[in-house]
Design brief:
The chain is globular, with a radius of gyration of 18 Å. Helix 6 runs antiparallel to helix 7. The protein is built from 9 helices and 10 strands. A 6-stranded mixed β-sheet has the order 3-2-1-4-6-5, sandwiched between helices. By secondary structure, it is of the alpha/beta class. The relative contact order is 0.16.
């Protein structure tokens, strides 16, 4: 983080309110306190976020006294930059790409910190720590630079930018153990709680005003928690009674299914769904 702050003119920290970006915030504190972060924090708001996550985001940023930029997918829709999907499986998740690239261009950001990890998904396993994007914001896994001995080449041309993944080599278990070590606060959705849900395509989703049940689908209440944070329309829950960090660490240590593999419908659209989105400029 210090290297990026020294080498780039205008970095930004992408913050979703999820566990990985919360860890990034703590790492930024350790890198730059007692001073303020030398970059703002930016959230790409789909408008279909979990309310608990938005409340946590605002509370944490206020506590840290940092600058928050919110880029809105709804505004992108209103301006005609993207067209909202329709139908029972509609999601705004893919629309975030345009909103993100527009915000990067508007604010002139040349580096963006993200909390992506290689263990999450096969396309993310191809990422470097410094992941280069061309002047269209696109990612080409074949044109990434080697990173030998933890040496990073941050040279870019005007219009290009770099996505930086400080915890790329961490696992989900590493993240939770760090949360336990640092006693980090998290949104309540990460712990077991009663919620009204429904089942679709083998996954459990939260009920919300923008969802329409299909024939045969029934809403019911059960104890669930979330392994990852995303758009409510495509983020599934897991049945769980893990109500503390210790419980979650034990649960994650025993699982053999990745968090995105178990809970993200957008990754199931095709074998290369994530890679296709990343090539367009996705997180």
């Amino acid at each position: 983080m210090r290297e990026v702050a020294a080498e780039f003119e205008s970095p930004v920290l992408l913050f979703s309110g999820g566990k990985d970006s919360i860890v990034l915030m703590r790492l930024a504190e350790k890198a730059f306190r007692p001073g303020r972060f030398p970059f703002p924090v930016m959230h790409i708001d789909t408008g279909h976020n979990f309310p608990e996550v938005i409340a946590f985001r605002d509370r944490l940023v206020q506590q840290l006294g940092e600058r928050l930029i919110v880029a809105s997918v709804q505004e992108s829709i209103d301006r005609g930059r993207v067209q909202e999907e329709t139908g029972p499986r509609a999601s705004r998740n893919r629309l975030q790409t345009t909103t993100l690239l527009d915000a990067i261009a508007e604010h002139g950001f040349d580096a963006a910190f993200g909390g992506a990890r290689r263990d999450e998904e096969r396309a993310r396993a191809k990422e470097r720590v410094f992941s280069f994007r061309d002047d269209f914001g696109q990612w080409d896994p074949k044109s990434q630079r080697p990173e030998l001995w933890a040496l990073y080449n941050g040279r870019i041309r005007r219009g290009e930018h770099v996505r930086v993944f400080p915890i790329s080599n961490w696992t989900e278990l590493d993240v939770w153990q760090y949360i336990a070590q640092e006693r980090l606060a998290l949104p309540e959705i990460y712990f077991a709680h009663e919620r009204e849900v429904f089942e679709r395509d083998g996954m459990v989703y939260a009920m919300h005003p923008d969802v329409a049940l299909l024939d045969g689908e029934v809403a019911y209440r059960t104890s669930v928690r979330y392994r990852t944070v995303g758009d409510m329309t495509c983020t599934g829950a897991v049945r769980s009674h893990a109500a503390t960090v210790t419980d979650v660490v034990a649960e994650i240590a025993a699982t053999r299914v990745t968090e995105r593999g178990e809970t993200r419908a957008d990754d199931r659209a095709s074998e290369a769904a994530m890679e296709d989105r990343k090539r367009e400029g996705y997180f």
